[in-house]
């Protein structure tokens, strides 16, 4: 019997090439599949630069400042604050950042052009706290050939001259460190990008006390995450002065696997991750730092960032970016802690009751007891949320969810037989209306049905 009846699609897939035909992927003895992540990497939000450049209306200074203050308040210790040579707004915002806490590093982003480097360094002239000057240039062949129109040698020359300019213009500034990003690292020949990175750490004289950040972006995501992990592990194992380099990654999300790329890259040796708090950024966005942090949290690892008031963080980010967070967004979306379906509701209800029972038995507050509730990978209360939205009723629901809601909202406790009977009435009602039934409507229906 032929169970596979799929037909070739009419779409011209022959126009596209596998990543393995676009860039040499060095075969490596990979260690990353056997590793575990037990500590948080250094997080660097780039919302004020990469996120900002993706907005139809870039943030005004007030919005930028509000975003910056939020990032610092929740625990980020390094923040990319802008592209100061891009606009007067960006420049002025950075110029005014003279009250940054001592333990927070600001990163400023610049292309490899002397005049723009001068402007960038001018923007941080009065900042006494740590500063990273972040130089970027595209290194992948497609960009070299058609955008920059330079050979490998010419591009190396351009980048090293820019590195020298940065060195010269910051020579009396002890608080300045350096970062380089070979843009579209993931489509760049490994020998070329390795050579370039090594030349930069030599030129900038990277030391353990004054490490250079080498940030290897998947500027446009083009491969499955294991390929990116291999590329990162190759660099991790091959770079000169490794102990004087902070190896950083900067995934985008074109294939929807930015999170996986970052997680595997950390296993592969990356120490630092750049992204945006809820994944804003060019096209499908930068990697989502909130999801990455909370993924760690749900493995029992301290993310080192405080997401315990997630709705406040979300409201601030939505205000600053003018972009709504979708209902299904991991951890923070309106519907991510909600079950409409009957068997899930039943499991959650039993799981919550069992959680309460076990905590009491152990003699610890419920908020301290290990969390193990079916279908809820995280306790909504840990994110500052209530259990109000955990169960909602429509035609997909069953007696368990209906009973839970009536009890939780109105203190009406039904016996199992009563629940089963009332659920039949609710089912008829939800089938007829086709809508969700609120707790209030449920209660009204209950009173109507059992009035006498
Ligand atoms: C992956 C990333 O996120 S990279 C960051 C992208 N972000 C931004 O572009 C936002 C801010 N940018 C800007 O405000 C402007 O692009 C500026 C001020 C930097 C430059 O503006 P303009 O001088 O008008 O140039 P334009 O925007 O057209 O950029 C194209 C030029 O930059 C060159 N260029 C591109 N990247 C780089 C780089 N990293 N270093 C040096 N030159 C570069 C291109 O080759 C091109 O030069 P050409 O005109 O000689 O062909
Ligand atoms: C140049 C860098 C860091 C970048 O924004 C990207 O490649 O997406």
TrEMBL record:
<protein>
    <recommendedName>
        <fullName>2-isopropylmalate synthase</fullName>
        <ecNumber>2.3.3.13</ecNumber>
    </recommendedName>
</protein>
<keyword id="KW-0808">Transferase</keyword>
<feature type="domain" description="Pyruvate carboxyltransferase">
    <location>
        <begin position="41"/>
        <end position="311"/>
    </location>
</feature>
<dbReference type="InterPro" id="IPR054692">
    <property type="entry name" value="LeuA-like_post-cat"/>
</dbReference>
<dbReference type="InterPro" id="IPR002034">
    <property type="entry name" value="AIPM/Hcit_synth_CS"/>
</dbReference>
<dbReference type="InterPro" id="IPR000891">
    <property type="entry name" value="PYR_CT"/>
</dbReference>
<dbReference type="InterPro" id="IPR013785">
    <property type="entry name" value="Aldolase_TIM"/>
</dbReference>
<dbReference type="InterPro" id="IPR036230">
    <property type="entry name" value="LeuA_allosteric_dom_sf"/>
</dbReference>
<comment type="similarity">
    <text>Belongs to the alpha-IPM synthase/homocitrate synthase family. LeuA type 2 subfamily.</text>
</comment>
<dbReference type="Pfam" id="PF00682">
    <property type="entry name" value="HMGL-like"/>
</dbReference>
<dbReference type="Pfam" id="PF22615">
    <property type="entry name" value="IPMS_D2"/>
</dbReference>
């Amino acid at each position: 019997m032929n169970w596979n009846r799929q037909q070739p699609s009419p779409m011209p897939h022959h126009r596209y090439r596998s990543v393995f035909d676009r860039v040499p992927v060095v075969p490596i003895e990979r260690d990353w599949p056997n590793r575990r992540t037990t500590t948080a990497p250094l997080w660097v939000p780039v919302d004020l630069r990469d996120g900002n450049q993706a907005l139809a209306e870039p943030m005004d200074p007030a919005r930028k400042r509000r975003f910056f203050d939020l990032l610092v308040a929740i625990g980020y210790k390094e923040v990319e604050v802008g592209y100061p040579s891009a606009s007067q707004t960006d420049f002025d915002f950075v110029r005014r950042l003279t009250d940054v806490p001592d333990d927070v590093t600001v990163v400023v982003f610049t292309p490899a052009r002397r005049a723009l480097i001068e402007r960038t360094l001018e923007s941080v002239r009065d900042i006494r706290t740590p500063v990273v000057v972040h130089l970027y240039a595209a290194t992948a062949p497609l960009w070299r050939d058609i955008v920059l129109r330079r050979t490998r040698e010419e591009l190396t020359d351009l980048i090293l001259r820019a590195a020298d300019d940065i060195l010269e213009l910051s020579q009396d500034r002890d608080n300045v460190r350096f970062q380089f990003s070979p843009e579209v690292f993931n489509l760049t020949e490994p020998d070329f990008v390795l050579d370039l990175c090594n030349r930069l750490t030599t030129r900038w004289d990277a030391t353990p006390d004054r490490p250079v950040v080498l940030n290897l972006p998947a500027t446009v995501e083009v491969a499955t995450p294991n390929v990116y992990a291999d590329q990162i592990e190759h660099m991790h194992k091959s770079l000169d002065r490794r102990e004087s380099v902070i190896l950083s990654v900067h995934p985008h999300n074109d294939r929807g696997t930015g999170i996986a790329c970052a997680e595997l890259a950390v296993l592969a040796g990356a120490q630092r991750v750049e992204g945006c708090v809820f994944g804003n950024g060019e096209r499908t966005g930068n990697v989502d730092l909130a999801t990455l942090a909370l993924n760690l949290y749900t493995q029992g690892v301290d993310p080192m960032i405080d997401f315990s008031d997630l709705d406040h963080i979300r409201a601030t980010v939505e205000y600053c970016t003018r972009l709504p967070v979708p209902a299904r967004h991991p951890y923070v979306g309106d519907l991510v802690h909600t079950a409409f379906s009957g068997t899930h509701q039943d499991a959650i209800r039993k799981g919550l009751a069992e959680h309460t029972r076990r905590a009491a038995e152990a003699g610890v507050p419920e908020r301290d007891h290990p969390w193990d509730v079916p279908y809820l990978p995280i306790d909504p209360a840990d994110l500052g949320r209530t259990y109000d939205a955990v169960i909602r009723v429509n035609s997909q629901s069953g007696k368990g969810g209906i009973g839970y809601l009536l009890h939780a909202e109105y203190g009406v406790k039904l016996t199992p037989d009563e629940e089963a009977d009332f659920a039949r009435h609710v089912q008829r009602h939800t089938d007829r209306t086709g809508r969700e039934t609120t707790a209030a409507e449920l209660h009204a229906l209950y009173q109507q049905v059992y009035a006498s």
